[in-house]
Specification:
about 25% strand, homodimer, four-stranded mixed β-sheet
Chain lengths: ~350, ~350
């Protein structure tokens, strides 16, 4: 069966400030040694199984030019601009109706644009297993990540290790971000996976479930679909999106539908959730520093230092994140990266939009 | 008796990098809240007791323009440029022969250009006491600083608390930078002062002692004096300085001469020896930070942050020195400021002169 992909690239992350800005979110940044941006890597990763003309990018009009310039191989009509953000269910629905206009039915991969995967071959093998399961019946497959520690920042998937379909396990339920104690229990039971937000299903399966569990959204999506290619397309899209309920695909569909399966992935997944991820995904030197730019370190250990042309000299530092850009420099203790958002709050309060 | 002053401004300190550079040493920087540079403050401090035309600045030709622009009130002929650095004895001798060309005799104050003094009135009172002692016989007066802790980075003056001349004590001997243990003993005896490098004497007294203890230098200085105002002045200066032995006034004169007195000063002296001094001389905010520039701090305590236009955001930091300039940024742990010189060594090795 034909495989299509929807890459979700509408996020406006603040956690990579000052590199990430309102007009340059994380998915368009290069954080790896190879110089490619997150969204370029996402497309490259699936390029052997999905044709370029079958890859759709869901974003918003502010980022359309970024998508176009970073992904010149993607047809412009495949760049779907949501008029307003309505969370993942309407976004995925929009992708699905576009694809269904083109193909009677097809496999649809849904992928975030700002995660990293270390072992691409293993990832493709998990995708293949997922496609096999998704082709049957109206199965909805979510790719789970085998947890390596008791993370409290992710949602979890409880699966039933006794009920398999191919390489997939039947999903019992989705659970929200747990406390540390609960996360530790999850890890011990070996029956919980991290919810990665990557999905595999047929167009017919997801549309069936949208109609069933989100009928109003589905009706709107059908009106959008009917307008594709007509002069009214933009108006209809704007009108319908304005009325959509903001809903995640997890709440809207996955927690309610039957036939939910998960394929566990151990392909070196990283959601690149903060500057600390840079240490995992890039090579550190013999002092434990991950360094780029014009840097001199003296007695400096386990620091992440991202500079540009300007000289940055560090003396006697430990466990810091230092990020220099043309107009702003961040210096942050590694254990305080969650507080970078307070800098942004401060900037917003002071109307210093040029830095946001 | 007429009072003249020689301000020594030839230093090329590295400890205020990246603000201080080879072409912008510490004495020309503004490190206080009032925006005045160290050398401007030095001149201002004595302006009520020394006429502008009697203030001489000893520096080198690289800094002549800086002196001229920062001290427009000083006559240009009073800016004495040493052709090569030969330590303080030849420098002071050069000042003395210039002054002796103008006055038969006068009091000569010798002052560093890069120290700070908090209580100017007390300082002037100590100067007056010193002048009173210096006017008598051939007394040489050094201003000692009452130590407040066991500093190992300064030389000390051992005085005889039983032999006084006016407000001055007779000096027993000068001692070099002590170990911590020895410095603690010095502090306990209450008979040691810090050697501040500030001197008061008559021109006739210092010239007499130069002739006695450094006869070759003295002879050269006399030849320089004879050439002042002649077309040969620059040539003679260059030739004589090249032959002078490099010698500090402490070794060359003070440790050998008789009639050495010291007036203890408790006028809030600070040699501004490193970035840490900024914390002592500028106001810190309620978080213990001393901040200037375009700065946002989140969870940041006891840091010194000197920025310019560029935004610097700090998150979760403690006890750091952050200094941003147009082309270089320093981030240094407070307990590692002594290692800033290693950054400069690295820059020298790599021939990156633009940053030095």
């Amino acid at each position: 069966m034909k495989i299509t992909a929807l890459i979700m690239a509408g996020g406006r992350g603040e956690r990579f400030w000052p590199k990430s800005r309102k007009n340059m979110p994380k998915q368009f940044l290069s954080l790896t040694d190879d110089g490619k941006t997150m969204i370029q890597l996402t497309v490259e990763r699936i390029s052997s199984v999905v044709d370029m003309e079958d890859i759709y990018i869901a974003t918003n009009k502010d980022y359309k030019e970024l998508v176009r310039s970073q992904l010149p191989g993607i047809p412009e009509k495949n760049i779907l601009c949501e008029p307003v953000g309505r969370n993942t269910a309407p976004c995925i629905g929009l992708g699905a109706v576009h694809m269904a206009k083109k193909y009677d039915d097809a496999i649809m991969l849904v992928l975030p644009s700002d995660h990293l995967i270390k072992f691409n071959k293993m990832f493709l093998s998990v995708l293949k297993d997922s496609c096999d399961v998704a082709e049957k019946d109206r199965n909805l497959v979510t790719i789970g990540i085998t947890p390596t520690y008791a993370e409290t920042g992710y949602g979890y998937i409880k699966f039933d290790s006794h009920v398999m379909e191919g390489r997939a396990y039947k999903v019992d339920r989705f659970v929200e971000k747990p406390s540390l104690e609960v996360a530790k229990e999850y890890l011990e039971t070996e029956e919980y996976l991290w919810n990665s937000g990557m999905f595999v299903w047929k167009l017919s399966s997801i549309l069936y479930n949208l109609e069933r569990f989100m009928p109003e959204t589905f009706a709107g999506l059908k009106r959008i679909q009917a307008s594709i290619g007509t002069p009214e397309e933009e108006d209809v899209l704007r009108k319908e999106f304005a009325q959509f309920q903001s809903q995640s695909i997890d709440y809207g569909i996955m927690e309610k539908a039957e036939n939910i399966y998960t394929v566990p992935g151990t392909f070196g997944w990283d959601d690149v959730g903060s500057w600390l991820a840079v240490e995992r995904i890039r090579k550190s030197n013999e002092m434990g520093n991950v360094v780029s730019g014009n840097i001199i370190t003296v007695g400096t250990h386990n620091c992440i230092i991202q500079g540009e042309k300007k000289l940055i000299a560090t003396v006697g530092l430990e466990d810091l994140v230092i990020v220099d850009t043309e107009d702003a420099t961040l210096i942050c203790a590694k254990d305080s990266t969650a507080d970078i958002k307070k800098v942004l709050e401060n900037l917003k309060i002071c109307n210093r939009d040029e830095y946001i």
